[in-house]
Amino acid sequence: MQSSLNIAKFGGTSVANYDTINNCAQVVINNPNTKVVVVSAAAGVTNHLVLLANTSLTSQQASEIIEKIRVIELAILNELKNPSEVEDKLFALLDELEEYACHEEINFRDDLKDALLSMGERISSLLVAAIIREHGYQAINFDVRKVLRTDSRHTEASPNIEDIERLSAQLLAPELETAIVVTQGFVGADKAGKTTTLGRGGSDFTAALLAEALGASTCEIWTDVIGVYTTDPRITDKARPLAELSFEEAAEMATFGAKVLHPATMEPALRQNIKVFVGSSKEPEKGGTWIVRDCKHEPAFRAITRRKDQVLVTVKTPKMMYAQGFLEQVFHIIAKHKLSVDLITTSEISVSFTLDNPPNSMSEKINKETLLELSQLCEVNVERDFDAVTVVGNNMHSEAGVSAKIFAAVARFNLRMICFGANVHNLSFVVDKNDSTDVVKGLHAALFE
Ligand code: ADP
Ligand code: ASP
Ligand code: MG
């Protein structure tokens, strides 16, 4: 059953320092329905942790990175009105962080990597709760691992929805009676209690999962932009914020690169019809975007997204002309290695598909073993340095003139791959990474300006 409960999630830039956390506290207090606060690690901290987890570093190099994290966290501690209240806990967490970072097997064991990666959120939730208390409100720091049950796929864990619902009802819901609960995004634990993480940017997903488990009616994603825009405002200053979006449009945008939402965020929202709000914790008075089931308008063109660092894999075999089951074999290998294919095109004798490989991600998506297995089956060609650009909208396959307008805008670019028609919500291009900014700008000018 849905209540008036609201879950508020604050991203890395929102919890970057004492002043920005104060803005967050004010946002929380302004909405009496906000009982659960989900926080990310302070800006930059997870990138430092990824570096410690994935790179073989000298102890001097590791110490320097750990020191950078300490500086960020201690700056917040030192501005607290009553630092002694959380000081011991913070120092213990920083020691724990150092212990994982300096573990001799840190680069080889994914369970240790997750324990290390979780530290940013474990620290920021301690500090955010303390700052909400400074405003005169009861707030506790709740260990999300008690309720956010996942499988054991470290660094890219999947949630177990039923367990999360059961555990939240038992352990989290009672806490909401007496205090504002501040908890960690991105972090979970498997059945054995081992720490897991949900993949980069996963705090949005945590907020939506907890909203679902607790029967919340709204979930707010507070970030550094005043909503979801027609395209990433960092690409063009012509981008403009959208008042409303449908779940499907938002899911499509997130999947195809709108970093403002983690791609899985809309799944729980869709299942339970939870309205999702996106706004800026720095300028909450500017409003934001509401993502809802039924939108007033469903325009042919809603937004343009870019997903960077695409790897284009082409598998080719003359056998395909005769042999049935070639695609099945290819996808069997892909599924076995748990790769998620984004875009795909096929011809008589070849199949091309994209995988993504963003910097700071925890795993190299296309690895040697996958390539080896594929090459036993067919000829394999791997090309890098591509971005995918996607136009997100509605009924794109059935409206006359839609594709003509899009293709006219990108006529001067070399389109390495085009995907259209499998879904009414998108049309995607794979382009050279050096062209993608101009492709987005050109499309934006043609479709929105
Ligand atoms: P947080 O740390 O709060 O989770 P993120 O950096 O993950 O924030 O996401 C916010 C960023 O997403 C914005 O600063 C913006 O550059 C980027 N972004 C990409 N596409 C869009 C879009 N369509 N609308 C708004 N922001 C976008
Ligand atoms: N701190 C994690 C990251 O940077 C999760 C998040 O911010 O959503 O990926
Ligand atoms: Mg994010």
Small molecules bound in the structure, each named once:
adenosine-5'-diphosphate, aspartic acid, magnesium ion
In terms of DSSP E residues, the strand content is 15-25%
Provide the CATH top-level class of the largest domain: Alpha Beta
* Rg calculated over all Cα atoms: 23 Å
| The CATH topology of the largest domain | Carbamate kinase
- Class per helix and strand makeup: alpha/beta
Indicate the low-confidence ranges by residue numbers.
Answer: none
Number of strands: 16
Describe the main β-sheet briefly.
Answer: 8 strands, mixed
Number of domains as seen in the coordinates:
2
CATH architectural label of the largest domain: 3-Layer(aba) Sandwich
Report what the structure shows.
The chain is α/β, with parallel strands linked by helices and 449 residues long. The protein has two domains: 6-224, 3-Layer(aba) Sandwich (Carbamate kinase), CATH 3.40.1160; 302-448, VC0802-like (2-Layer Sandwich). Helix content is 37%, strand content 22%. The chain is built from 14 helices and 16 strands. It has helices at residues 18-30, 45-54, 59-79, 84-101, 110-117, 119-134, 161-172, 203-214, 247-255, 266-272, 326-336, 368-377, 402-409, 436-448; strands at 6-10, 34-39, 139-142, 180-184, 187-189, 195-197, 218-223, 244-246, 275-280, 288-292, 301-316, 344-346, 350-356, 379-393, 415-420, 426-432. It has an eight-stranded mixed β-sheet, sandwiched between helices. It has a six-stranded antiparallel β-sheet with strand order 12-13-11-14-16-15. It has a two-stranded antiparallel ribbon with strand order 5-6. A hairpin with a 5-residue loop joins strand 15 (415-420) and strand 16 (426-432). The two termini are 43 Å apart. It binds adenosine-5'-diphosphate, aspartic acid and magnesium ion. Magnesium ion is lined by residues 11, 201, 204.
